[in-house]
Amino acid sequence: MKKIWILLLVFLLIPQVSFANGYKKLTLDDAIKLGTSSNLDVKSEKLNIDIAKNNIKAANRFQNPSINVYENFGQAGKGNPQQVGISEDIELFKRGARKKLAKSNFELAKQNTAFVQFNSRMDIREAYVDLVSAKSILKALESQQQLLKELLDVAQKRFNAGATPEMDVIQARIALNQMTTQINSARVDVESARYEFNKALNVKGKDVYDANEDILPENTQFISLFTPSPKKSLPEFSTIENDALNKRFDIKIAKQQIDVANKNLTVVKRQRIPDLSIQGGYSYQPKHYSEEDRFMQGGYIGGSLVNLPIFYNYSPEIKNAKLQVEQAKLNYDSVQNKAINNLDEAYEKFVTSRLNLNYYDDKLLKDSNEMIRISKRSYEVGKSNLTTLIVMEQSYRSIIVGYTNALASYYDCWIDFLREVNNEEFMLDENKL
C-alpha cells in the first residue's frame, strides 16, 4: 500500500515540473544563432581578441621620458652649472620583436575564439539532439502505455465474458503500472535534457528554451537537424584525414603556439642588447656661483648605454624560452597524433551507428510492428494467452526504444564526427548539408 502511495505521489508531482508552461520553442537553426550571438562563454572569449589587439599597441610603445633637475648648493655650486633637462631611454632592436610577438598572440586569440565558437555550436547541436531524443523516448513509452491500456481493456472484457481468468486482468494492470513508473522517469530525463540544452545555450536571462521538435526526425527529414540521411555513402577514411588535419582548430592553435614561442624567444634574447639613454637640456650658473661674477647659461647633451648584460645576461630566461619552443613543438606533434586517433574513432562510430540505424529501418521495425499486431489479434480471439502477449509487448517496446536510441546515437555520432573534422559544412555525395 505504501509503494502505491509513493508511485501516486510521483505521478502527480513530476508532470507539474515536466510540462510547466513558459518554455520558448527553438528550431536547431534558431538555437545555434542564439548561442552564437548571446552565449556568455563566447562573449567572454571574444574579449580576448580586443585584449590582444590592445597588447599590440602596448608592445609598440616608446619609453616615457624623464625630467631631470641638478641643483648644486654651497661650495659645490662654485663654478658648476645647474641643469634642467630631459632624458629618454631608447630600446634597441626590442620594440619590433615585441610587436611581432603581440601580433602572433593576436592570431592565437582569434583562433582560440573561433574554436570556442565552434565547440559552442557543436554543444548546442548535441544538447538539442539529446533533448529531442529524450522527448522521443517519452513519446515511445507513452505509445506503449496506450497499448497496455488497450490490453487491459481487452483482458477486462474477456474476463467479464468468462473467456479468461481474473489473473489476466491483474497481470495486465501490473504491466500498465510498471509502464507508468518508466514514463515518470522518462519525463525527468526530458526535464534534465532541457536544463542541459539551456546550459549549452548559456544565455543571460530567465527565459527557458525548449526544442521545437518532440520526436527525432527520420526518413527524409534528417536535414532538419543538419544531418545526412543514413542511406548516403560516406567517403573512405583516407580521403577525409588529410583535409580534416588541415582544418582542425586544435592543430592550427598548436601550430600558432610554436610561432608564439619562437617570437617570445627572440624577445627574450634581445633583452641582452643594451638600451641607449640620451639626455639634454638647459644649463646655467647664477652670478654668485660664477667665477666670472656674471650669470652664465647654455645647454647640455649626453648619452649612455644602460642595462649592460655584465652581471646578469638573461641566460635562465633564454633557456626557458628555448624549452617553451621545444614544448610547443612536442605539443603540436601530440595534438596531431591524438587528432588522427580521435578522427578514426569518430569515423568508425558514425559508420557503425549508420549500419545499426539502417538495420532497424530495414529489418526490425517492420517485423516488430507485424509481430505486435498479430499477437494482439491472437489474444483478442483467444488463440494465445496474455502472458505471451505481454512478453511480445515487452519485446516490441525494447525494439521501439532501441530504435529511438539508435536514431539518437546516429545524430550524436554525426555531431562527434563533425567535431573531429572541424567542419560544419562537411559534404556527403557532393551535396552540402
List the helices and strands and how they pair.
Elements: H1 2-18, E1 23-26, H2 28-38, H3 40-59, E2 66-70, E3 82-90, H4 95-160, H5 166-201, E4 208-211, H6 237-247, H7 249-269, E5 275-285, E6 296-306, H8 315-380, H9 386-421, E7 427-428, E8 431-432
Parallel strand pairs: 1-4
Antiparallel strand pairs: 2-3, 3-5, 5-6, 7-8
Helix pairs in contact: 1-5, 2-4, 3-4, 4-5, 4-7, 4-9, 6-8, 7-8, 8-9
Strand/helix succession = HEHHEEHHEHHEEHHEE
The largest β sheet comes out as: 4 strands, antiparallel
Which class best fits the helix and strand makeup?
A: alpha+beta
Helical fraction equals 55-70%
Q: How are the strands of the largest sheet arranged?
A: 2-3-5-6
User: What is the second-level CATH architecture of the largest domain?
Assistant: Up-down Bundle
- How far the N terminus sits from the C terminus, by CA atoms, comes to 55 Å
Overall pLDDT confidence: 84
**Count of DSSP E strands?**
8
Assigned CATH superfamily of the largest domain: Outer membrane efflux proteins (OEP)
Describe this structure in words.
The structure is a single chain. The protein is α+β, with helices and mostly antiparallel strands. It has two domains: 22-59 and 100-272 and 314-432, Up-down Bundle (Outer membrane efflux proteins (OEP)), CATH 1.20.1600.10; 63-90 and 275-308. Helices cover 66% and strands 11% of the residues. It contains nine helices and eight strands. It has helices at 2-18, 28-38, 40-59, 95-160, 166-201, 237-247, 249-269, 315-380, 386-421, and strands at residues 23-26, 66-70, 82-90, 208-211, 275-285, 296-306, 427-428, 431-432. A hairpin with a 2-residue loop joins β7 and β8 (431-432). α2 packs antiparallel against α4 (95-160), α3 (40-59) runs antiparallel to α4 and α4 (95-160) packs antiparallel against α9. The longest helix is centred in the N-terminal third of the chain and has 66 residues, at 95-160. It is elongated and about 140 Å long. The two termini are 55 Å apart.
